[in-house]
Design brief:
Length: about 200
């Protein structure tokens, strides 16, 4: 990875890691937006569930949540592309995050490689099969009370989220640990598929 790509990657990853709890709220707005297509609302719910579910406990938080910042951006791109008539209004409502979206995804693709981003984007079917608090993904869209529960869980995630500018300062110096972690997960996933 050349120095300029590395610098842009570390800056982008730092910023997106710090903003993850706020960005999750944007996805939660997508889950509850009746003007968006049902299918993308479910995809948004599945992405939120994936992000707020505990995982990789023995891994540094900034490494563990790198996958989440990419998935979240892929989900937001999908909401804008496939959200139907309500998509332009949703995109306008969150123009700040959408204004940087393509550039951020491009930086991640340069750093991790296109196959990693494609692998993450191909995870939607498995993410949609997730169950959270004994609730299946469609319930978060179809049942207002269950949707409110997910919103509250998203807010709780933000409160307990272990990353801030302060905790990240001096930690994220090299791209390699993050890149290696995602490549390891990708390899494990490929092994599961072939078994």
């Amino acid at each position: 990875m050349d120095k300029e790509v590395e610098r842009r990657f570390l800056e982008t990853l730092s910023r997106t890691l710090v903003s993850l709890p706020f960005d999750v709220k944007v996805l939660l707005e997508g889950v509850s937006d009746p003007d968006l297509e049902h299918d993308v609302r479910e995809l948004a719910a599945a992405t939120v569930v994936h992000i707020i579910s505990p995982k990789d406990g023995n891994v540094e938080p900034y490494v563990r949540h790198a996958e989440d910042v990419i998935l979240l951006r892929l989900a937001l791109r999908k909401l804008a592309a496939d959200g139907g008539e309500g998509a332009p209004a949703f995109r306008d409502r969150f123009s700040e995050i959408y204004g940087r979206l393509d550039e951020e995804l491009e930086v991640f693709e340069q750093a991790f490689g296109a196959p990693i981003v494609q692998w993450l984007e191909a995870k939607w079917p498995s993410l949609r099969r997730a169950v959270y608090a004994r609730k299946k993904i469609p319930m978060f869209v179809d049942d207002e009370e269950v949707g409110t529960f997910l919103y509250d869980e998203g807010l709780r995630f933000g409160t307990e989220y272990p990353i801030s500018e302060k905790t990240l300062a001096g930690r994220l110096k090299q791209p390699q640990p993050v890149v290696d972690h995602l490549h390891r997960k990708w390899e494990q996933d490929k092994r599961k598929i072939t078994q």
